[in-house]
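Z., the sequence and structure:
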Amino acid sequence: MDESAILEVNDLHVQFHLEQATVRAVNGVSFSLNRKRTLGIVGESGCGKSITAMAIMRLIQSPPGKITQGSIMLHLRSGELVDIAALSAKGPAMRNIRGAEIAMIFQEPMTSLNPIYTIGSQIAESVMLHQGLSKKAALDVSLDMLKKVHISAPETRIKQYPHQLSGGMRQRVMIALAMCCNPSILIADEPTTALDVTVQAQILDLMSNLQESFDSSIIMITHNLGVISDIADDTAVMYLGKIVEQAPTRELFENPLHPYTRGLLNSVPVLGKKSQKRLVPIPGMVPSPTVELTNCAFEPRCSCAKAECRNGIPLLREVNPGHRVACFN
């Protein structure tokens, strides 16, 4: 494993075995997350972004879901290298990793925060579990975290319930809850989707500032390319359970090599440009994840497709330093 990487996912497969069919939600994903870097994972809804994150956290509900293949190698603070995919999802080793080594911010905080407990008690519970502090000391840490995420009147908010806070404040609470034990890795799954543009910018700035303060690495999952360009050092583009392109973010935006990546960028409007070209949609539909493909998944929608694309699956290969693409062209 690369020493500069804190997390390395290798050939990860996640399947959901239903009565009617098997859904191949994640189908051979590989990537590395380097220390103190932000990796953006972008793609259409249903491409496997969130399932990849849930697999890393070992939160896939089994049955019907299961990691069927691959490894998730994590460097612990102790220096030990552990394969998360080989651990029991409900065992003590994985419980110690969640929250303390890897934390996650979910898309909708109202479904993630417990409505019957105060904000302070929910943050304090995690602190007591992972740091062994008394309830009073854990509440002091909770108050300090609310101050760090710039929640107004934190002494009042700590005693309030989730429904008493605005959407932006609840998302700040989720960030405080995720960062309270100083995890090495923060996974943010669409953390700004339900927020207006102004609050979205504040949340992204807050995450960047906390990353510097805590020396954390971040996996940012989103369908918003604007968010990716603003916060990510490196970007991976997913399509139908696979990564089709990965590169440093600036290079990806300036020199997209996969037709799907180019299609995503061509469909983004640019405000303030007088010479704005007509947006170009990607034709067709995403194939069903229940079908086991023997060809390039993007071939039916690709204007550059050739015979080779219909008869084989392109492998993710490095074409420039740090720039990988899965395309026969």
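The two ends are 29 Å apart (CA to CA). The first strand starts at residue 5 and ends at 17.

Let me know what you think.
H.
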